Every structure is written in C-alpha cells, then in structure tokens.
Amino acid sequence: MSSLPPDFGKPPDLSPPPALATDYAHCGELVRAQDRDRFLSALFAPPEKRQELFALYAYNVEIARVRDVVREALPGEVRLQWWRELIEGHGRGDVGSHPVASALLDTVVRLGLPRGALLNLIEARVFDLYDDPMPSLNDLEGYAGETASALLQLSAHILAGGARPDLAEACGHGGVAMALTGLLRALPFHAARGQCFIPLDVLARHGSSRDEVIARKPTPGLMAALAELRNHAARHLAAAEQALVDLPAGLGPAFLPLSLVPGDLKSLARVRDPFRTVGGLSPLRRQWLLWRAARRFRSRTR
Fold first, then answer.
1. Which domains does the chain have, with CATH numbers?
2. Which GO molecular function, any one, fits this protein according to its record (predicted)?
3. What is the tens place of the pLDDT at every residue in 110-152?
C-alpha cells in the first residue's frame, strides 16, 4: 500500500480561505465605488482571479485617497506608515479588522506578489500629501512608474500566476500614459486644493508657471504645456500598444484601462477651460470601450 498522501502530485490550492470571503467582497465593493474603470476591467478576468485583483485595486484606493481623508500631512504620513509596516510584515493592530489589509496580505502570501512594488507605491504617494510642485517630466514619469505602471505589473502577475518581467516595457509605457491622462483629467480638482502635477520644466518651456495652475488661469502658455503632456501620453500609449502585440489573451484584463486613454486625450484636447470642465469619456462610453477591448483580447484565442 502506498504511503503517499492522496493529494500527492496535485497543484497546490491557491484559493483563499472561506473566512476571507467577506473581506474580498468588501474590496470589490470599494473598487466598484472608487475605481470604476479597474472594477469593470477585473470583471473580464477569470472568476478565480477577480478577488485578488480587487484586493490589489482596493489597496491602491486606500493609498491614493489618504490625502482626501486627512486635513494635514502628518496624519497622512501616519496612515501610510501603518500600511508600510503592514506590507513589511510587522504591522501594528488587528489586521483582521481591516478587510482590505486582510485580503491584500492573503493575496501577497498566496500569490507571491512582490512587497517591494507595494512599498514603492506608498513612497510615491507621500508626494500627494504635500503641495510641492512636480519638479520635472522625469519626476512625473517616475511617479507614474511607481503607481500606475506598478499596478499593471502586479495585475499581470496575478493573472499569470507569477512574475512577468517580459512585460516591464509595456507596463512602464502604459502606466505613464494612464497616469498622465488621469492627472490631466483631475487638474481642476488638484488645482483647487493647491496641488500642481504639471511639471515645472514643462510649464517653463511654454512660459507658464505653478502660480498660473494654482490661480486656475488657462493662459496660452499653460494650454500649450497641457498639450505637450497629452502628446507625451499618446507617445507612451503607442509604445505600450506595440509592446503588447503578442500579449496572451489571459493577461488582457490587466491592460484593458489602456483602451480608455485615446478617448480621454481627445476629450481633453477639446476642453477650452481645463479648470471648469473635467475632460474625459462618459461612463457609458468607458464601459463600452472596455467591453470592445476585452473582445479583441478574447479573439486571440480563437
């Protein structure tokens, strides 16, 4: 009689414990409410992968909205430090009482997500707590790389069941395209609270300044600086699309939000006063474009 266990040779069960089901469900609802584009994109992923994507995206929501829930930078630093210690493995307090933290840690442990990338996302978001201007276009690309690009890379890791270093170029360019477009859409909101994500070197190149951004003056120089950023985002998008030509269909859901960038950029280009109008596609149009992009990815398997 064999002494081998009955499950010998079977792949390990990577599904989350049933006790975490409510935590993952909470993540899904949070992403649905706060990050609709990524929520809809995740719905095109296999059912067994969606909850891990929701945990990752909910973590991003929690980090990205720290500035919105605190009045001063110091409490924001404290919140980010709590997440930093959690990711490093020596968090304080009952993690089980925080559904996003609980689901995220479960995903990190089971799927081997790189903690360094999650920590870098926190470090990048420290910038959000203060009103310092973005110094240069290189700094802005670095910020995008640690945020939007990292999320693309981590999403691909979840869908692939492991790291995909071969997608670094696509994630890098795609993240910059998405981040720049998102920041341009959020210009009215950021300017109203004293933040300037338009790089100082880009503003200076067109005879504009941070003061014009904060004063919400759509001068010719500022409009030219915004046009440069739109063109820069379009170039990164083209590079990302080229790098994704041979992307396996199963990894498509990670990159679906890229399909929204062209429409958002066209909408932003038509805005005459970027401080009074929030440019971008309508919710219904966004949903349709995501569905169409998902169909294109799925057709690769036929």
1. 18-129 (1.10.600.10), 131-302 (1.10.600.10)
2. transferase activity, transferring alkyl or aryl (other than methyl) groups
3. 999 999 999 999 999 999 999 999 999 999 999 999 999 999 9
